[in-house]
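Need tokens for this chain, all 353 residues.
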Amino acid sequence: MTPRARLTGPGVWLGPDMTRSTRWFRDLPPPALDEIDAALRTVQRRGLAWHEIVRADFPLPTLDRLLADIADELENGCGMVKLHGFPVGRYGDEALRQIYFGLGTHLGWPVFQNRRGELMRDIRDEGGDLGRRYGQIEIKDGNGPFLSSYARTLSNGRLRFHTDRTDVVSLLCVRQAKAGGTSKICSTPAIHNAMLERRPDLLEILFQDIYRSRLGEESDRAESVYALPIFGLRDGRFTSHYSLTYIEAAQMVPGVPKLTPQQRQAIDLLMALAEELSFEMTLDPGDIQFLNSHMTYHGRTPFEDDKASGRDRLLMRLWLPMPNNRALPAGHEVLWRNIEAGAQRGGIAQTGQ
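Here are the structure tokens for all 353 residues:
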């Protein structure tokens, strides 16, 4: 077996480096607001709902240069961008969705985020019986049900480091919580390099198949499982698809191979390194976060809402396959369907049920 090599490039970074860097900041230039408002008036005059908008419906002739720069930073740079300066308070909910979706069509192709066919998802604490609505596994040990990743996303709890089923995940911050809800982000190529230095034997395990469940976003049954490595390389480009919750759900399915002690060690080290190498990104109302899922993991601290004061957290989420995306390794079709560079891929396939 050929020894693994260190990954290089601007996508390999440490958390402290990013706290001192501004390369991932972009400001929305004030003249762009007039351009956005003109595009909004165009779709409103035509009576288009937000989900009916395609790129040609939402012309942004000068802003396209900034969006092309963002797309390049996401794929060939550090893999993350925070776009600052969008005045969310000027618009109602429908207009916000029209603008955000319109912007998204200039970056990529919005895809479905769950089996319910949602192209845009409000990320907020929905409370109540989330597991019954969004997926859970009943456990007989008295500790309550095991919640799907989807259900956890719509709570106010902590989210562990993970990736989404898309090239780029984007979040528009409409309102922030009274406390908490901070994004945590790390470079997955940096995790690769740290494992190569400390435990190359465990690194190799992450390039081998590990079973995951499709419970939650894609299926209401934990028994729908697939095998995929956590790490992959093709043509020198790295990718990682990972959520511990999907792996844990698969472990509860009869007949699925149990994780070996070495696989557990590799995952434990992966999680420890993600925490060690991460940094925190605060999103204020009007900020739009873009993350390349092949190059970053993201998580979230718990949060506390205060609806009475208008400080109840609301983010709008888009999943965007990107025209400049990388080719993925053979075998990743099980998740992405199309693995060639520049392909429309990812998201949740609709079964018609």
